[in-house]
Amino acid sequence: MTFPRPPAFRLLGILAVLIVALSATLLPTAYAQSSKAPLKIAMILWRGETNVEQGFRAYFDENNIPVDLTIHDVARDLSRVPAIIDQIRKDPPDLVYTWGTGITSSVVGKYDAVDPAKNITDLPVVYVMVSSPWKTGIAAPAGQSRPNVTGATHIAPLAAQINAIRAYRPMDKLGVVYNSREDNSVSNVADLTELGREMGFDVLAAPLGTDDEPSPDDIAPAVAELARKGADILYIGPDNFIGNYRDTLTDAGFANGLAAFSATELEVRDGHAMLGLVSRYELVGRLAASKVEQILIGGISPADIPVETLDRFSYLIRLSSARKLKLYPPLSLLDYAEVIE
What residue intervals traverse the membrane (predicted)? Predict the structure, then answer.
């Protein structure tokens, strides 16, 4: 299935050719069609705009590509997504941008269980901050594709994350507190457990929400239990619930002498995780914007645009947390890590 360029773009594209023929020297930048109507994009966000969206906006600004962004913030409440989809259908944009596994899964469905009555199937969708698109069924398996969906992921390969932890300190037991009601978290823990058999470490898992909605009050007791079992470090994966209560987790870690490693940026940069191997959110937004450009300006079908992650990751160290735990980084790490006070 191919998504044609919007009619306004086709007409304006002809005008642009005439303009180029008459006065190519007047074109101001690399994107020579800045006079075109803006790309109309509906953004469905988990908790308002983040650095991901700043990077998304910056990409278009720097390339002089006009965009008209409509923000739909679910405010951490997925039950709001169906009403937003209804609203989008009444005034269709050129493209829909989705943030996170929960929103994206609600908007596009699983690749083998799409319901056109509930999911968006007739507009291109570009997602960000989906940690395991294949494991959660958002992306089709290898050799297949989805006609209207592509995206940018943000998680470094798990083996690289484990190597990053071990570059800082020895690790044989990885403690993970996670929300068992989030598909991305369950998938990530399963992958870590499998990787542990290969790389020689045990995953000590502490699932929350097995009987009822998870509560932040359950975090500290779970961390204490992991410490009692001999966890060497706490692992913070792609988990919205833990992300919301990251300070509760890291404070419990401090109380039990446990540092925290994070696979996502905010838990180190804005929280108190001691280290992380992360994608910079701003760069994830730029990667997503480049895919939007390919679809709406390049005329490329989302099915032909691969789901990708960044090819470089940042090693972050929060020195204040290292001081608190008296776990100072090896000097060799300081050659390439970004140290945050």
Answer: none
Q: Is residue 150 within a helix (H) or strand (E), and if so which, with residue range?
A: strand 149-152
pTM score: 0.79
The Cα–Cα gap between 80 and 58 comes to 28
Kindly tell me the burial class for residue 289, based on how many C-beta atoms sit within 10 Å of its own C-beta (0-12, 13-18, 19 or more): buried
Exposed (0-12), middle (13-18) or buried (19+): which is 169, by Cβ within 10 Å?
middle
Could you read off the pLDDT of 104-158 as tens digits, one per residue? 999 999 999 999 999 999 999 999 999 889 988 999 998 898 999 999 999 999 9
As given in the structure block, the two tokens for residue 232 are 């060497």
Give yes or no for a contact between 289 and 56, defined as CB atoms under 8 angstroms apart: yes
Strand partners, 138: none
Structure tokens at 152: 């940018």
The total number of residues shown for the chain amounts to 341
Sign, CA dihedral 207-211-215-219, equals negative
Are residues 129 and 52 in contact, defined by beta-carbon separation less than 8 angstroms?
Answer: yes
- Cα separation of 330 and 326, whole Å? 12
Distance from C-alpha of 93 to C-alpha of 253, rounded to nearest angstrom? 45
